[in-house]
Every structure is written in structure tokens, then in C-alpha cells.
Amino acid sequence: MALDIALRSARGLQETLVAILDAVERVPGVERSGICLPGRGDGEMRLVMQRGLVPGEEVDCRCLPADEALIRRVRTGEPVFWAASPGDAPAARGCPVLRLGGAAVLPIQAGELFVGILLAGTSRPDGFALESRKALIVIASQTAPALHIARTEHETSASEERCRSLIDQSPDGIFAFHPVTHRVVEANLRFRQMLGYDEREILSLTLDEVIAASPESIAANVAEVMGHDRHHIDERKYRRKDGQLLDVEVSLSRARYDLTDVVLVNVRDISRRKANEVTLASVRYRHQLILDAAGEGILGLDREGHHTFVNPAAAELLGYATSEMLGVSSHSLWHHTKRDGSAYPETECPIYAAINDGRAHRSDQELFWRKDGSSVPVEYVSTPIMERDEVVGSVVVFRDISKVARLEAIAEAIEAMNSIGYVFSAVRHELGNPVNSVKMALSVLRNNLASFQEDAIRTYLDRSLDELSRVEDLLASLKSFSLYENVRAQQIDLSEFLSQFLSLVRPDFSERGITLLFRPSPDAQRAFADPRALRHILLNLFANAADALAKRPSPTITLRTYAKPGLTEIRVEDNGSGIPEAVRKEIFQPFWTTKANGTGLGLVIVKKMMAKMEGTIGIESWTGAGTTVILTLPADGASAR
Questions:
Q1: d(Cα 83, Cα 4) in Å, to the nearest integer?
Q2: Cα separation of 452 and 447, whole Å?
Q3: 3-class SS shares of the chain: helix, strand, coil, % to 5
Q4: How many CA atoms, within 13 angstroms, populate the side-chain half-sphere of residue 146?
């Protein structure tokens, strides 16, 4: 009775085994006990619980040594008992429960259903008494149904747990839903992670909350699987808890769950695959390495001219971070203004033309504009990107040709200075005119000295003195021309130098109503130049700017500095009358001038000095809007030629 109560109240296999061994221990003579259950191997028995062993004798569910004859006898329902020296049970020596001498090995069996083996050991030389044997046989037979149920439930639970563990470890999401209500009835861990729900939340969902598709489409898929028992594979978008859509590949099949037909769905996240196909990713990676290593700037543009790719060289040349350029209109960012300062319409842009007409366009006469507002002369080619005979964008490859232009300007300046024949011819002309005028005036005086009045004589003498003054001015200019034949370039603190220069000239310009502004770049702190020559150059440029500002409203001269790789740029800007294009073409020719009393050597001298210092001079001017003179010098001695 006590055993029946204990078995009915037992919960699970463990409690059932304890209840059985508790009953066995109450049998007179029992000192050790144990229970063996069939293992997974054929004929294998495992000792799953034991009582009464001394320290060192315990076994951790080891297999009961197989005496085939003994096991056969027990499996047929025969209980086996022996005394201290059994001759028919050699297996006893391998089992600590049976090692005392007297032992019992009894089948736990319900009808023909073999459940396990009950073991009992005693130290009595004659083994168990008859009453004890009967009690053990009763216990073995009474416990068989309860042990069978407990063991079956345990194995079923363990099997379910193993199955769930395997499903939860699946790299794919797996869930099941009711074909009529469309409610989720089961979901593995991976599927819950995909959608961002916990176990309780996922079981409250219906398909229309999970699948971003029309109810009609969902119903059609369910009907196909349930009605025709077909295996359905499709690509869908599933909706996560946070509202984001997830690209998935789903496989639907019919299954049984809790005695009910359900639709079982295997879900694979293909969002990464769709975004980056393996082959394409590999090709793009190799291309990326090549583009990143290229010295030229390389830009990818879409059909609207927005950046889709920017290599490091392009970002550096334009002064932007790559992240600042991606997705932004290329034209409005760095190609918005022409050389003459006027707006550059997109309709006239050769880069956009490549997208529109599908042909490559080249140029080496344009400027790209940097983030800091400075410009850089470039040579570029814009080539259309074709996909299935359709233009989908363009690739722009460009390089900074400012160094090339600088070297060309230096060579041009040196060539101009070496044109001695031209210079001598011009000097002869410039000297010849005043000399002839003086000679003529003096000849007239000599021939008419006796008859001329004092006023007439003074007139001829004044005329001669004026012409000699012209000669004197010319000689002074020629002296300046050769003054810095051997420049002494050195490292200078540019901001300090320019600040001192402005302090020197500001009083004179203030008297003329001209405002001087200084806008230095914090990155342009150094220059490699001759301080005397640079001061002379700036005085000349400021004087020219002052002349251009005559009678202009709010006359202003702005001095700016910029830093470029290895170079320092000084800009002298005015809001004066500007220089016509025809004049700009001749402005650096010796003795060419538009001023009534000019010698035409000022800018020639400036250009020579810049060439001697490994620098260049350039002029940007807009009629009626002002002029900018750009001086480019090495930033340090290492950058000098």
C-alpha cells in the first residue's frame, strides 16, 4: 500500500526510482540496491540509481557487465537469487551492488514488456531469506507499470528537449501557424531573434502582423500547401517588431502539431545575400583596393550626378571627408563656378554631358572647387557607365595639374626673362623716344638761341627735362628688374610676415579710403621665400589694386592664405574695376602697360621674383567685379624644386 501511494505521488522518473529503492531498503536483509534500465545499445543495461555503496565503490551509471546467460534469464521474467559463492553468476563480480555475496537480480516487467532490472545485495552467507525474496519479487512486479510510464514520459520529454534544442540551434528560423486562424503556434529561438520578439510575444502574432504582403497572397500560399500538400518556396518581406522589413526566403510544408494540421515554415534571412552577393562583393572588394590605391581622384556618379563612390585621393584633393560627399550632388559641391567667376549651369557641364549623351568628355581647362573655397586646376575625363545599353551614371577621373601649371609658369617666366633680344629691342625703343625728343629740343634751341625769348627757351628745357625723367624712371625699373637676381629664400612665419606688412601699408591706404582685410588660414603658417622680394611683390600688387579701386564704392583689398599639399597660397583680392580678358593675355609682357605713366615692367618683375623663389603667379579677374592675384610658394625647403 505504501509503495502504491509513493508511486502515485511520484513526479517524474527520478522520484519513481527513489520510491522503488525506498521500498527495497525496507525488505529485511537488503544492504545494497540498484535499478538498471535498458541503454541505447543492443542488450546494454545501465545502472541508473544505487543505494548502500561505501565510498570508492560508487559507479556513475556504468553499464552492467553483460553476462548473456544471466540477462537472458532475467529478460524472460525469471528472478535470479544466489548465496555467497554463486557459480552461475560471474557478472556479479563486475557490479558493486552484487559484490557482497548474496544477491538478487529481478526483472521489472509488466506482462511481456521488459522495463528494467532490480538489484539487491546482502552480506548474509545464505543470501536472502524466502520472505525477503517474495517481497522483492512483489516490488519488482508492482513497480513495472509506474516505472514504464515514468521512463516513457522522461524519454519523451528528453526527446522533445533534444528536438527543441536542435531546432533552436538551427541557423534558420522555424515556426508553425494554424492554417485557418493564421496564428503562430510555435517558433524557434532563431525566428524570435530575427523578428525581435520574446517567446510569449511571438505566440500572440498572426501572419498579417508578420508578413508584409496582402491577405489574399498569404491565403493563396496556405491553400496551396494545405489543399495540394505541396512544398512551397518563396521570397518574402517579414516585418520585425521595430517595424523594419527583413528579406527572407521561406519554405512552407504541411505538418502535424498537437494532433492538428499546421503549416510549418522554414525562414532564411537573405537580406545580406540580396545586398551583397558573394561574387559581386569579392569583385567590388578587389576594385575597391585598386581605386583606393590610385593617385588620381576617382568619383562614381549616378544618373542624377550624385556621388556613389569617392576614392581617398578624390576626397583629399577636394578637401572633404568621403562621408560628406556620398549621396550629394557633384556639380553643386565642386563644379559650380567657372574660371571667370560666373555660375556654371548643369546643362553646360561636360561631366553631366557624359551621363546625358553616353560619350566620354575630357578637359584640362577647368577648375574644381575645394571645401575651403579655393579652386584647383584639373585635368579630367568623365566616362559613362553602361548597363544593358543604358547609361546608369559616370566615372570621373581627375588629377590636380596645379603643379604642372606651376612648373609651366616657371618655365614660361624663365623663357621670357631669357628673351634678351626682345628686352633689348624694347629698351632701345623706350630709351630712343625720349632721347630723340631731347635731341630735337636741344637742336631747336641751338639753332634759335639768339632769337628765342626766355619763355620759349624755358619751354624747350622743361620738355627736355620731362623726357629725361622718363629715362630715369625706366632705369629705376630696370634696376628693380635685376635687384633680386639672386634671391635668398628662407623659412618664414607667413602670418607674422603678412601682419607686419599690413601694419606698414595700412596708414597710407586708410588715407585713400581703402579698407584692408586679412583672412589667414590656420593651416597656412609657413612659406619658403625671400622676405625682401615678397615684400616688393606685395607692394606692387597692392599699388595696382589701389589704382583699380579709384572711384569704386567701398574700396576693399582682402589678403587671404590657403594651405595646399607642399604649397602655400597667398591671394590679393580687390573689388575694383577688373581686367578685360584681352588685357589679361598681355599683362605679363615686358613694357606692355595700360597706364599713362607706366613702364610695363611691374608685373614682369613680380613674375621673375616668383620664378626665382620657385613660385608662380596667376590672375583671375571679372570685369566690373574685381581681381584676384594668386601667389603660390613652396611651404618649406623640401617642397622647393
A1: 30
A2: 10
A3: 45, 25, 30
A4: 23
